[in-house]
Design a protein that fits this description.
This protein is an alpha/beta fold. It has helices at about 5-10, 15-25, 30-45, 65-75, 95-105, 105-110, 125-140, 155-160, 185-190, 205-220, 245-260, 260-290, 290-305, 310-324; strands at about 50-60, 80-85, 115, 145-150, 165-170, 195, 230-235. The protein contains 14 helices and seven strands. A seven-stranded parallel sheet has the order 3-2-4-1-5-6-7, with helices on both faces. Helix 2 (about 15-25) crosses helix 3 (about 30-45).
Length: about 325
């Protein structure tokens, strides 16, 4: 097995096998692997951050994988190095679904300037997101300048994905007149752009109607950045139409918010939020793994259930054991 210094050297040189291997270390549950991963990430931190990080979300079937294929190919043709990562805490990724993704991204998979990594295996959102976030940093250290983080629109995964990217893209479909129904509350607020996919064939007209409706809906909302009005665009991932416009929109956004200092400010805030989140996770883990807590918790739970001790009283008891 290679030592950390060798890994770091090969990673910085852009070695893809090393990149994949290090992400495997990040995803591993073995403490010695995670320790090694942590050392590598710390060592390459100065080499990270030089990418544009793009989140892509949308309901199952909206065309996320097809979009990333099309968008990714456009970017590699324009001399970008593209990494596509995923956060998918909801499903256990079987061989089958990875295969399905790979076939949907079969051309992008073959590109030497593209790197596709399916979601770390399912688990709590926080854990899955941590691994994806670290994979992102590692890809940046390997010289990837566009990082795409895909997430399926379930649970809290969109807000988590949005909190680790610079630009958040929400893919939508043109519906049958009730476009604004069934959209998860809050999703429009965090979108930096909405893209109506499958704008092709008979669907072009509907997509255009949907575009106008969403644009109206968005104009009523308050975007996080005062300098940016999130646009609504249409595209066909299948026919690779409308893709260039999306990239232009993202680069335009980056230009505007970089000039005002917002870009860096948002990243700094994300880093601090992330640290706080990890602290909370770490404390929880240590608490529940504490020997005394493990011993006392079942009995205290029973007592709370029977009304023999108050919930806060039981917490006091447990805290005294762990924090002295
Ligand atoms: N007509 C048309 N079909 C599309 C387009 N994009 C994707 N599709 C089709 O829609 C289906 C779903 O596409 P995917 O790319 O797998 O969608 P997804 O959002 O990744 O789906 P999940 O991975 O299940 O969340 C596939 O049959 C695609 O061929 C498009 O632009 N136009
Ligand atoms: Mg997919």
């Amino acid at each position: 097995m290679k030592n950390t210094a060798e890994y770091i050297k090969e990673l910085k040189a852009g070695n893809r096998r090393t990149l994949a291997k290090i992400i495997t270390l990040v995803e591993s549950v073995r403490p010695d692997d995670t320790q090694k991963a942590r050392e590598i990430i710390d060592a390459v931190m100065p080499n990270t951050g030089k990418s544009i990080r793009i989140g892509v979300t949308g309901v199952p079937g909206v065309g996320k994988s097809s979009f990333i294929e099309s968008f990714g190919l456009y970017l590699t043709k324009n001399n970008h190095k593209v990494a596509a990562l995923a956060i998918d805490p909801s499903s256990i990724r079987t061989g089958g679904s990875i295969l399905a993704d790979k076939t949907r991204m079969d051309k992008l998979c073959l590109e030497k300037n593209a790197f596709i990594r399916p979601s770390p295996s399912s688990g709590a959102l926080g854990g899955v997101a941590r691994k994806t976030k670290e994979a992102m940093l590692i890809c940046e250290a390997a010289g990837f300048d566009v990082i795409i983080v895909e997430t399926v629109g379930v649970g809290q995964s969109e807000t988590t994905a949005a909190s680790m990217v610079d630009f958040f893209l929400v893919l939508m479909l043109a519906g049958a007149g009730d476009e604004l129904q069934g959209i998860k509350k809050g999703i429009l607020e965090i979108a930096d752009a909405i893209v109506i996919n499958k704008s092709d064939g008979d669907n072009i007209k509907n997509a255009d109607i949907a575009r106008k409706e969403y644009q109206n809906a968005l104009s009523l909302l308050h975007h996080e950045s005062p300098l940016w009005n999130p646009p609504v665009l249409t595209c066909s991932a299948l026919n690779s139409e409308g893709i260039e416009k999306i990239w232009q929109t993202i680069t335009e956004y980056k230009k505007i918010v970089s000039a005002s200092g917002e870009f860096d400010k948002k990243r700094r805030k994300q880093a601090i939020d992330w640290m706080r989140f990890l602290i909370t996770e770490e404390i929880k883990e240590r608490f529940y793994n504490n020997k005394k807590v493990k011993e006392m918790l079942p009995e205290l739970t029973l007592k709370v259930e029977q009304g023999l001790i108050s919930p806060s009283g039981s917490v006091d008891k447990l805290m005294r054991e762990t924090t002295g």
